[in-house]
């Protein structure tokens, strides 16, 4: 992906970086009420398995402070909270003291946060570990070296400057802190690539129109996946931000990838 300091890809178009911020905000404002359904449509429902695997890999521990950036409706944070509670219970059962983990959802879009909170209320979820706030992945209101783990799931391709967001993640993590990015990526097989490309451009926008009455937002999301760097290029960007031992794991033949690094 080529990108200057003043422009950023919005789907297949290059737009002013400041304009992209507003355009992406509008996309997610439009899809917020159907966001979880949107992920089902875009992944064929497999995103649940990807998220389970990513959260298990992060392996949240009692007392840790974890950022769920672009946390949307809280899908990742709830998984992390459940895992952290289980780890706390195991520690207490062995006779050790243990504190709750602290999981901070940060999202640029107020509508996404509202949708997440409403989901918690509807399902009567008790989530003492989770907090919600509006914030910018490229300018986090967090002190340096204070976070144990950072995860961003299906969000980083939507920021105006991916490298700046990676730099911010590195800044807020403690030395040795863990970075995780779960994102749609590029299939490693030409057969899978052809199938997923056909599904992406023929089925997903149609389903967006059918399910959410919003073809344009889904068209953007499909195009944004196509424009996102491939696995090795993105790994290089993570390393450029200063992360050590950067690596990735492909899911579903590279349709999705989990990237990791250590601060």
TrEMBL record:
A Pfam family this chain is assigned to: Ubie_methyltran
InterPro entries: SAM-dependent_MTases_sf, UbiE/COQ5_MeTrFase, UbiE/COQ5_MeTrFase_CS
Reactions performed catalytically: a 2-demethylmenaquinol + S-adenosyl-L-methionine = a menaquinol + S-adenosyl-L-homocysteine + H(+); a 2-methoxy-6-(all-trans-polyprenyl)benzene-1,4-diol + S-adenosyl-L-methionine = a 5-methoxy-2-methyl-3-(all-trans-polyprenyl)benzene-1,4-diol + S-adenosyl-L-homocysteine + H(+)
GO BP of this protein: aerobic respiration; menaquinone biosynthetic process; methylation
Binding site for S-adenosyl-L-methionine: 73, 107, 136-137, 153
GO molecular function: 2-methoxy-6-polyprenyl-1,4-benzoquinol methyltransferase activity; demethylmenaquinone methyltransferase activity
EC number of this enzyme: 2.1.1.163, 2.1.1.201
Pathway where this protein functions: Cofactor biosynthesis; ubiquinone biosynthesis; Quinol/quinone metabolism; menaquinone biosynthesis; menaquinol from 1,4-dihydroxy-2-naphthoate: step 2/2
Top EC class of this enzyme: transferase
UniProtKB keywords: Menaquinone biosynthesis, Methyltransferase, S-adenosyl-L-methionine, Transferase, Ubiquinone biosynthesis
PANTHER family named in the record: 2-METHOXY-6-POLYPRENYL-1,4-BENZOQUINOL METHYLASE, MITOCHONDRIAL (PTHR43591:SF24), METHYLTRANSFERASE (PTHR43591)
Protein family (similarity comment): Belongs to the class I-like SAM-binding methyltransferase superfamily. MenG/UbiE family.
NCBIfam families the record matches: MenG_MenH_UbiE
Function: Methyltransferase required for the conversion of demethylmenaquinol (DMKH2) to menaquinol (MKH2) and the conversion of 2-polyprenyl-6-methoxy-1,4-benzoquinol (DDMQH2) to 2-polyprenyl-3-methyl-6-methoxy-1,4-benzoquinol (DMQH2).
Record-given protein name: Ubiquinone/menaquinone biosynthesis C-methyltransferase UbiE
Gene source species: Asticcacaulis taihuensis
């Amino acid at each position: 992906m080529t990108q200057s300091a003043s422009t950023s890809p919005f789907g297949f178009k290059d737009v002013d970086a400041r304009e992209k911020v507003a355009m992406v905000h509008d996309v997610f404002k439009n899809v917020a009420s159907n966001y979880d359904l949107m992920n089902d449509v875009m992944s064929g429902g497999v995103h649940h398995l990807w998220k389970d695997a990513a959260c298990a890999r992060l392996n949240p521990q009692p007392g840790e402070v974890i950022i769920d950036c672009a946390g949307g409706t809280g899908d990742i944070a709830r998984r992390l909270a459940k895992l952290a509670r289980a780890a706390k219970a195991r520690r207490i059962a062995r006779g050790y003291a243990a504190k709750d983990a602290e999981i901070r959802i940060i999202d640029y879009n107020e509508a996404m946060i509202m949708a997440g909170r409403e989901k918690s209320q509807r399902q009567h979820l008790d989530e003492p570990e989770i907090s919600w706030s509006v914030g910018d992945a490229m300018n986090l209101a967090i002190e340096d070296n204070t976070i144990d783990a950072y995860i961003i799931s299906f969000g980083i391709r939507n920021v105006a400057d991916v490298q700046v967001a990676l730099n911010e993640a590195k800044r807020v993590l403690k030395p040795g802190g863990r970075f995780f990015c779960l994102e749609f990526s590029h299939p490693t097989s030409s057969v899978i690539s052809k199938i997923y490309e056909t599904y992406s451009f023929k089925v997903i926008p149609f389903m967006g129109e059918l399910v959410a009455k919003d073809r344009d937002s889904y068209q953007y999301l499909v195009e944004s996946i196509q424009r996102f760097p491939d696995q090795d290029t993105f790994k290089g960007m993570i390393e450029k931000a200063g992360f050590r031992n950067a690596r990735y794991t492909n899911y579903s033949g590279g349709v999705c990838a989990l990237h990791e690094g250590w601060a």
